Amino acid sequence: MADGYRGLFGAFPYAFGSTDSRLFKSYVLVGGVAAAALSLFVLLALVVLIGQTASIQGGSLTLSRAFYIVVGLFVVTPVLAPVLLVARRHRRELAAGAGARYDQLLAVAGYLFLASLFVGLVISVPAEFQTPPTGFFAPVVSVLYGLPPLAGLLPPFVAGLLILAVHRVLGR
């Protein structure tokens, strides 16, 4: 591990092996699976879009295809960020002192980002696809359904800023 990790895919085993936090180790596993699944969803959505619009000429279609990629980056990057930041910190041997706390709080921020993606999706469900909420979380889901769909962008944005804030505050 002393020689570094060599890129994105090597950062996952490096971060997993270099941290002492079990919470962060769990995030490395969950975040890796989530990032792979989200990347696959974005890639499949892009393939479907290209398939549906392959015979149509025009510049606006190129813009919409690029928009899928940009949205994918805005969703996947915050999922990967805690793992990459911890791997970088341990590789540079900056983990002395607040290392375990840094790792744990980045894991919490990463899990909160994953939860915020779900909350954002619930908010943005179109009215014709909303089912009557039942169970323990029914009041919360009802409130989320009542919000305008564009508000679904806010929870992931705030959670992404939280990851950045944890890194800025504890990364010194």
Automatic annotation (TrEMBL):
Keyword Membrane: yes
Stretches assigned to the DUF8056 domain: 1-170
Official protein name in the record: DUF8056 domain-containing protein
Stretches that traverse the bilayer: 27-54, 66-87, 108-127, 147-166
UniProt key word Membrane: yes
Alphabetized Pfam families for the sequence: DUF8056 (PF26243)
Residues forming coiled coils: none
Keywords assigned: Membrane, Transmembrane, Transmembrane helix
Alphabetical list of InterPro entries matching this protein: DUF8056
Natural source organism: Halogranum gelatinilyticum
